[in-house]
Amino acid sequence: MPRPKSEKVRLSVFRGKEAKRNHAILCSLHQKSPQTGWDIFVQLKKRKEMTGLTYTTLLRRMAALQLHDYVMKVGEKDTMPGTETALYQLSPRGELAVALSKINLDTFVKKAGYDSILGALEAFENWMQ
Prior knowledge:
By secondary structure, the chain is an alpha+beta fold. The protein has helices at about 20-30, 35-45, 55-65, 90-100, 105-110, 115-129, and strands at about 35, 70-80, 85-90. The chain has one domain: Arc Repressor Mutant, subunit A. Helices cover about 55% and strands about 15% of the residues. Helix 2 (about 35-45) packs across helix 3 (about 55-65).
């Protein structure tokens, strides 16, 4: 049987054509939250792999992530006299997605203490009911 490319959890939000942008947006919000779309855009444009990103594309990604409940609007911020822009923050689903993208489940099962394992097991069992 061939070995998988990565032993980390690959969630649907981190697969496909928009995976890099989704991951960058979620990680940006994980580091500092809440942020406006423009703040996220400025932060991502500093990265070498995001040089082709446009503000319109970022707003489209934010809307898609909000539709799938990874990101939520938490308020508005005054930008210019008479204009307001949305403040975004990670939803609990987004927080979990970022956390699962950073851990290796095989290592967790092998090295975690019984308390951590029992807590994770209880959470999964409650979800399956």
